[in-house]
Amino acid sequence: MCGSQMLWSAFRGLGRCSSDSFPRIRVHCRSFTHSTPCRSTAKPISAPSLALPREPSLAQKIGRPSSRRQVIFTVLATCTAFTYAAAWTNTETDEWLDKLMRGRAHRAQTWPHTITSMDMKNAANNALAQELRDGLKTVGSVTEGLGTGVRNRIMLVWATVAQSYLNVSEGKRICWKICLLNVGVWLAWKSRRLKPFMLRNFVHDPLSGRSFTMLTSMFSSRIALVLALNLLFLDGFGSSASFHLAQRQERMTDGQIESTTRFHFLAFFVAAGLFAALTSHIIQVKVLYPRLVSRLSLPSSQPAIKPDTWASALRPSPPPRSRLRSFFRSLFSSSHPKNQLTPRVGGLGALYALMTLTALGFPNAELALFYPPNYSVPVQWGVCSVLLLDILGIWRGWRFFDHFAHLGGAAFGAAYYVYGPRFWNWMRAVVADPSHPKS
Fold it and tell me: Which ranges carry the Peptidase S54 rhomboid domain (predicted)?
């Protein structure tokens, strides 16, 4: 009991403690009032500022190649070629006019009153025949120390080649010279030491940024089949195109006389080749290259876009179901991978211009092979068939030939057929010497 009483008395004493035994704690009361919130003048943070920086696409990283240099080079080279050709044609024509006018004074009874282009060409052929005779004499004097049999064979070969060269037209002569240049370039491709040089300077890569290779690639052929086609086309249509250019010049009412057509033919050939190369370059850079980049930018899970144009050849298509379609697809399919920007080699674009000019200038002519079967077809049918084959090659995606360059060359030949003779006559008048007397 004593213990419990002591606890109880202690508890009662604790209850009687004064208020001064503990510190007084005061809590400050705060009144809350409700008011309408005001609009903030700060601009809200836009969503793009909160987003992470977007990674550039593949097309933005690698950029797009430009074709400005190639266009400028083509225009300047074409103007230079025609200016050079017109100046040399005027110079040579003036020289032959002076020679014939001096000789006309001694033969006033037999010489015609007006000197024509045919008169100057006949005089030029006679001068060429005399040069070839002098060359035969030089060969005979050089080979005097050899045996009689060897000397006779050498002179016989020279006489045969010289006679063949003299009997053909002037247009075929210049075509033979271009053929020899093509053969020389083809032989250079066969050299291992020259192969790096040829790859840099005689192949036009649309992504290299070079321009002069559009000109050098015209005379470059790496494959013997392509070289044979170049020589065949050039020998067959080159002389006809040259004859048509001379004929149109004579038929024009205000046409100027000219002693030679080789400079005009060379300028046309170079301009046609450059235009064909530029057409192929622009198509590959502005059409095929962006499509290639867009295909590479697509995610692997995204399906390919269904083709709706000729560019379907550049996109994968489902395999054929029937065996017949599979056979024809394997027969006419491209041997190169899809979307490949192939470097350009060969001058078939310029040859297509010659072919088109010949077909328009001589619509009644016929084409025939020089080996059996000797079946001939109208030239317009042959040209249309070849152009349709190029269109089919573009649609199917063939890469063995540059079909865009072929169509560009054909378009240039058709345009030159309409506007070329007047342009050539105007060009000769621009660079002519006004002080020189005319016949």
Answer: 332-419
Which range is least confidently modeled, 106-110, 261-265, 310-314? 310-314
**What's the number of CA atoms in the CB half-sphere (13 Å) around residue 57?**
12
- Going by C-alpha positions, the residue among 288, 277, 423 that lies closest to residue 353 is 277
pLDDT tens track for 273-303? 999 989 888 888 887 777 776 666 665 555 5
Residue 205 contacts residue 70 (beta carbons within 8 Å): no
What is the DSSP-derived secondary structure letter of residue 16? T
Angle at which helix 262-283 crosses helix 68-104, to 10 degrees, equals: 170
Domain residue ranges of the chain, discontinuous segments joined by +: 64-115+168-295+340-431
Per the CB < 8 A criterion, the answer to whether 402 and 348 are in contact is yes
Residues linked to residue 366 through DSSP beta bridges, in sequence order: 378
Contact 279, 344 (CB under 8 A): no
Superfamily of domain 64-115+168-295+340-431: Rhomboid-like (1.20.1540.10)
What is the number of alpha carbons within 13 Å of residue 59 lying toward its C-beta? Answer: 12
Stretch 387-416: mean pLDDT: 84
Give the orientation angle of helix 68-104 with respect to helix 117-142, to 10 degrees. 90
Question: For 26, left (φ over 0), alpha (ψ -120 to 50), or beta?
Answer: beta
pLDDT of residue 336: 41
Which spans in 57-147 are helix H?
A: 58-62, 68-104, 117-142
For 368, phi then psi, to 5°, come to -145, 140
Phi, psi of 399, rounded to the nearest 5 degrees: -125, 5
The whole-number average pLDDT for the span 426-439 is 73
Of the candidates 395, 394, 415, the residue with the CA atom closest to the CA atom of residue 404: 394
Please state, in angstroms and rounded to a whole number, the distance separating the CA atoms of residues 399 and 305.
22
> Coil, strand or helix: which one is 344?
strand
| Better pLDDT: 16 or 345 | 345
Cα–Cα distance for residue pair 391/394, rounded to 1 Å: 5
CA dihedral 125, 129, 130, 136 (to 10 degrees): 160
pLDDT in tens, 143-199: 887 878 888 888 888 889 988 888 888 888 999 999 999 999 999 999 889 988 988
Identify whether the C-beta of residue 396 lies closer than 8 Å to the C-beta of residue 332.
Answer: yes
Per-residue pLDDT tens digits for 337-361 = 444 556 666 678 888 999 999 999 8
pLDDT for position 298? 60
